[in-house]
Amino acid sequence: MLWSKAFCRCPVLVLSLWFCVEAVPIAVDKTKVETPEQELEAPQSVDTGLHYDRYLREVIDFLEKDQHFREKLHNTDMEDIKQGKLAKELDFVGHHVRTKLDELKRQEVNRLRTLIKAKQDVEGGHEMNHKALLMQFEYMNHMNPHTFEVEDLDKLIKSATSDLENYDKDRHEEFKRYEMMKEHKRKEHLKNLDEEQRKDEEQHYEELRKKHANHPKINHPGSQDQLKEVWKESDGLDPNDFDPKTFFKLHDNNGDGYIDQQELEALFTKELEKMYSPNLEEDDMTEMEEERLRMREHVMNEVDTNKDRLVSLDEFLISTNKKEFQEPDSWETLEQAPAYTDEEMKLFEEQLAQEESNLKQKNVELQKQKEELERQQEQLDAQKAELQQHILSYNLSIVFFLYFFYPLFCGIQLLVVTILSHRKNSRTGSGETVDSHDSSETQPNHLTQRASNPEASRTNVSEETPCTWQPWLARTEPGPPQESLVRDETRISLPAKPSLTRTTLGQLCIAPRTSQSRPAATEPGREPRVSGGTASAALQCPRPLHHLGGLF
């Protein structure tokens, strides 16, 4: 019974599940459904393109963390902000925020000083007034580089506003110069071609222009048709269900209640893709970015009524109720509205010609300087090579002299010494002869003794060997004081001015070769005098004469 009831209820359960699965979903209008608002954290601010963009964004981010200042910022009109009324609210900001702002300012001042130092190094290290250079950065008070005050915030707001207003103008000027330079290069390229090639190039250029102009219709930026196309292509919604408020919330990417410039430029991507493609030769991506900038400026001029460079929800809804939103005029693209005129192109070519002339003149001057430096370098190299050659020659001459002439010089010196020594020996022999002759005349007693005793005389002759003539041992007459001379560890007394005469030659001493000396023969009753002194024995001749050759 129980099993029968279970089998009866199972088909009912299966059928109910099948109806639930196969049921048609109910269409829900997303535009009329109110979704709960979620509090999203504000992402980092977008890049403004200013050179102090990081400093600006960090200051704004820290100021918005203060509740009081954030309320004043959203409730203050742009004109009041430009006049500096918002900057006075800095005095009511919390202490921790002010401390962080002081630190940010010190970092920015150090960054600017680093840039100035780098510029100084590039320009050659000339002395610069750093304070005067810092004054050109008008977005901060450089007289107080340590703390962030009300004047700093006021300067930052005014400088950022002015720079952002001129930022688009500067970009337009850069694009105009880019277009004129591109046209100038094309003309210069045609000048270098012959007639036939020039015609082919002109024909190819016209074909590319026609291809670029052949594109789908471009909707007026910010119009209903343009926004509905974004609604359909990007958001995937039905154009018939277009709702401006929902569209605004869908494209407020950071959820701050405003559509900024970057969020607004993203709305024109689909329109730009109709005209430009990175894969086509006739399309220039630089022109595409200029077209995007023109569209954004046009929408901002029509929608941004308070000129704060932000589109609020109220401003956007008001613009959708205008007649221009429903029935806009046609949009002129860049090919329909050229970036420059013929007069501007002519003036630009004249400037290029002048710049080219200046560059050529500078190139000639640099070439002359290069040649002069090369010539000076060649002279230095020649002088260096000549100096090295002189040094090498000098070294070779020294080596040659030492190798060849020094032994010869030593030999000549030895020969001269030998000759002088030989001459001295010869003079010594002649002196001994004179001595013997004079002794026989002046000392007859001495010769008489030898004649009376011939055996003793023969014995003396055989035992004695005549010594060389030694005038320093001569007996001299009393005279001036004598000098002392030391030679080879032998002290010899010499007269101050020795004079050898016939009277003194007979007084010379003949010293024996042997170590034993005998008394010299003297006159009877008179002691011999040697070198001004008295001696009882004959003096010895310790060394040959050539050892004392340097004395003469």
From TrEMBL:
Report if keyword Calcium is assigned. yes
Superkingdom of this protein's organism: Eukaryota
Annotated membrane topology is: Peripheral membrane protein
Query: Record keywords: Manganese included?
Result: no
What range(s) does the EF-hand domain occupy? 239-274
Coiled-coil positions are 150-211, 345-393
**CDD domains given in the database record:** EFh (cd00051)
Q: Which Gene3D superfamilies match?
A: EF-hand
Segments crossing the lipid bilayer: 398-420
Q: Where in the cell is it found?
A: Cytoplasm; Golgi apparatus; Membrane; Secreted
Cellular component terms, GO, for this chain's entry? endoplasmic reticulum-Golgi intermediate compartment; extracellular exosome; Golgi apparatus; membrane
Region ranges (Disordered):
426-464, 511-535
Residues annotated as signal peptide:
1-23
Q: Name one GO molecular function term.
A: calcium ion binding
Q: Where is the composition biased (Polar residues)?
A: 441-464
Where it mainly occurs, coarsely classed, is: cytoplasm
Q: Pfam family of this protein, just one?
A: NUCB1_N
- Which UniProt keyword terms apply here? Calcium, Coiled coil, Cytoplasm, DNA-binding, Golgi apparatus, Guanine-nucleotide releasing factor, Membrane, Metal-binding, Phosphoprotein, Repeat, Secreted, Signal, Transmembrane, Transmembrane helix
Family to which this protein belongs: Belongs to the nucleobindin family.
Q: Which PANTHER family match?
A: NUCLEOBINDIN, NUCLEOBINDIN-2
User: Under what name is this protein listed?
Assistant: EF-hand domain-containing protein
